[in-house]
Fold each of these.
Amino acid sequence: MTATTAQASASIPATLRRLAPYLREHGWRIGISLSLLIAAKVATIGVPLSLKAIVDHLDPRIAVLAVPIALIAAYGVLRLAGTLFGQLRDTIFERVAQRAMRASGLDAFRHLHALSLRFHLERHTGGVGRDVSRGTRGVYNLLGWVVFNIVPTVVEIGLVTALLLRELDWRYAVVTLVTMAIYIAATIWISEWRTAGVRAMNEVESLSNARAVDSLLNYETVKYFGNEDFEARRYDADLRRYEDAAVKTENSLAVLNGAQALVIAAGLTALMAMAAAGVVARQLTVGDLVLVNTLLLQLSIPLNMLGFTYRQIKQGAIDMERMFALLDANAEVRDAPAAPLLRIGGARVRFEHVSFAYDPQRQILHDVDFTIAPGRTLAVVGTTGAGKSTLSRLLFRFYDASTGRITIDGQDIRDVTQQSLRAAIGIVPQDTVLFNDSIYYNIAYGRPDATRAEVEAAARTAHIHDFVLSLPQGYATQVGERGLKLSGGEKQRVAIARTVLKNPAILVFDEATSALDTRTEKIIQAELAEIARARTTLIIAHRLSTIVDADEILVLEHGCIAERGSHAGLLAHGGRYAALWALQQQARLAARVGTESTAETLP
């Protein structure tokens, strides 16, 4: 066995050990299931014994020929008992398997939400979802196949061996055990050889699924560039690789089935020859011959499934490996031990000499230092890539600062719970992504326990209530995947309503009105100013016209604060901010002139 094979084989007990915590609460169910399993197998082994007795009873050489009613009845009862005990075992154990699947899936789901933004930016969402889905299904499959197939088969082999030793002699037990050993060894060896193909199939399937989801999520981009055929060809290339791996894996099944049939046929032939010789020598009865034949054939039924069972177990272990790998992924941002809740007083926000880099070779922020006083508004402007949005990500603690610290009311945000920190902050992002649900659900997501009146009040504040009522389904209107059924401005107003409903002490507007037309922008700006009046507010802006009333404006360049001051002070300074203001005013004037010229040419 190669090192890789040995490692793969070792993964099954390792995986079962990982499952142990999910099974402990169901100890009594497992105990009853095992008891029923043994009872079912004892009844199953009793069937060949009753058949032997019936045959011997009908043999005129050793008994008076008569219909053995009692033995026939016993035969029927044993067959029924074996089936009933097996069904009861399945019924009782089903709750164990389902609960383990549910608990492991929930753990994976919670852990994925606990992982940092960096992890999610580097992973394919479709691939992660597929890994969790297959992993939870693997939990169920592994438990089911081990408990319902492997353990019963082992118990049955033990009972058959003991029965052969008692009823016949050691030679029959030895031949049976040797046959079983060769059969199991051949099955495991060939199945291990096939495992590489299964792994390849999984890898290609995850990749194709991730690419398909990514393509569908970017439906509009695909359409913009007319790349439907390109996406189809790329997806087909993945499917072709999966097809080749699947064909190769399934073709190898013939080798496995052939080897299994050969071993069983050889063992059965040897046993039948020995039993027939015993009958001829009058050492055994015809019933003994039937007993030997029936026992081995009865064993061959679950053993014929051994290859499939082993593959399913290996598949379950492989699927669970990927899910457990996700569970083992390090959460980059963690709560400190016994971290307290954030205590909000005036909601003073302080960035103290903060530096940060997503990658050690690419610094984003350099010694950024500023304070947002309680109830005041600070705006941050700068060119694309200057590090503006990174400030909000650090404030939400999606990442921890490389150096320096961020405090709220004097409390380092690394020392308080993330839940309480994020509960105190509301954000309206530039790129608003909505859940594929109703408008009501998406607004209420800001505070799921809010009343309908509170949800509608938030919608009125964001100037979207009347629009929603004009829709045929009102607040029950479905927004589609990522909110694609709504316009950019409508999505933005839903996001504003959601944040208003949350009612946070600290507000972050990251290009909050970038998707709105000029008229709506002015209306929303007035409302946002009213909302922000009693709150500490951080505005990340591109349009300088939206931040003229900010208490302080920072100009970021290459991650450093290049200028700071009020709108009037920065214009008077004549620096970078003044140059940006002049450039945007020229662009606005040119746009206005263009609009007026177009209007004059219309009939």
Note: DSSP finds 19 helices and ten strands in the chain.
Amino acid sequence: MNVASPSPPPGTQHWYWAAPRIAIALFVVAVLALLWLLHRQELEEQRATLISDVLWIEQDLRFHLTRNQELLQQLAQDYFSGELAAARFDLRARSVVSNSPEIVQIAAVDEAGSVLIASPGPTREAVAGMGMRQEPVVQAFRLARSTGNATYSAPYQSDGGDSRFDVIVPVFREGSHVGSVAATYSVRALLARQVPWWFAEKYRLTVLDGSGNVLASKSNVAAGQAALEYQLPFDPPGHGLMLHLTSYRAKTNLVRNLLAVAIFGLALGVLASLWALRRHVQRRLAAETALRREHAFRKAMEDSLPTGLRARDLQGRLTYVNPAFCRMVGYSPEELIGREPPMPYWDPDNIETNELQSARVLAGEAPPEGFESRLRHKNGATVYTRVYAAPLVDDRGVQTGWLSSVLDITEAKRLEEIQRQQQEKLQFTARLVTMGEMASTLAHELNQPLSAIASYTTGCLNRLEANDLPPEELRGALEKMATQAQRAGRIIRQVHEFVKKSEPRRAPCDVNAIVEDTIGFMEADARKRQVKIRQQLAPGLPQVLADRVMLEQVLLNLLRNGMEAMLEVRATDRLLAVSTAVHDGAIMVSVADRGCGIPTEVAAHLFEPFYSTKVEGMGMGLNICRTIIEFHKGRMWAEDNPPRGTVFRFTLPLDNP
């Protein structure tokens, strides 16, 4: 029994007959298009390769010249400092030339441009004026001497017809020019040395001057029709020099390419009509498989992250949480997905702050640097986190919610608190040490009012026994005794406030009042050391939010350091100037002494912990001072105080939160 084969559905017969014709037409179009595209792609690749290669060779030449300049700088420093004799100068110069044969000669010249020594080369008398007689070299020498920087000369022709240029490296000592080292380069030798063989096999590299004249070139390619050209400045040495790169047209096997394209296109055209449905099914299956793999990969990646991830829709409902976030708060995904604010992991003691932070995220006002949020674990433990929020956008570019990455910083917070407590203990210890060092002066200062009280008391008793003490005179004596008692009490109160251990308390403070109180506290020590303290306080300073005791500790340390720095100075020159001013939105306090100053090698370590120039110093005073100022969002530094001494300055911002 014959069974008729099923006929294609109506409307598809035309497609079956037209498919081969369409395939042939597409084949022809595809071949032509591919040939054109291959040709364009070949030219673009050649141009990109040419630009990349010329940039590489330019960077290599620049690096080589810079490295040689550094060697010449060191050679110049050693020679003009007297550490390098003439024989050793010759050895060093020959070593540089052996590593860089493009350097024809290295010469040392004095401040007037006269050659002192040259190597490798003839004697001083023969070499005098060889390089320096060229006008471009003379101009470069003058420019280097005036600017203090290494300077390249314009190119010039040597007696042998070789194009050359010089680099002048000046040496200064105490602000005065003492001489220079000049190195003469051969442009031809520079290209021969630095341009690799493989580069010369592909291109012709030419060095042109500002007028377009060829100074030197290198290439192993036979000249032909230029395919591509490119040039860029050759700086250093500059002066209009250009690197010109030429690439000659290479032969391409168009027949082979055409045959490969034709075969490939014909195969695709024939198979396209027969396997269209199969390809469609395969592509769909492949897309579905890739989608499942991508989803599984992203899910595994999100589940393995130690950072918590949390997604919310535009209304604030939780739509996704990863395992790291669940471990962080102690809740399962089933307990969190679909929840709206307030969230179960919010800290009940910090509920208003959490609500404000959530509202800012939903409004798109979350800070890009993130914000800290205090959460509550399901077991009741407090969890400190830092949250970074970003818009959640779908494949159509429409925002569907917000994605937040949550970092657990509980341990970092704990370490920060331990460090803060240790710093407070160290500051308290430093205040006790300071009071211990000032004990003798404070005892003397307290002895004066106590002695006065004793004297007035004895006098009053004697007059009372004699029965000749008028009431007015008794009242005057008692008032003086009260004044001295108040003075002693004020000293004791200042010491007690300074040394008692307490938490930092930031409150509005008058910086001028703090300065005056601290100076009053140090007046006895200043009289003992024969130091005059001068105040230059700017009137009407705005108040700053600060801890008064901590600022007194900073000022006390700076005043004592300033007085100790002037121990070797004549008593008449011992002046300690304290000033305040408003500068760049902050209050700046300066303490200037007329001591011996701070050497450069000491200044680099001045604020490091446990670094001290004193025999019995702990090396923590200035470090603690800087820590206190940075706690107040300020900055501390030291400067020279011409003509002699040092100025310590610190700032306290007016908008300090």
Note: The radius of gyration is 42 Å.
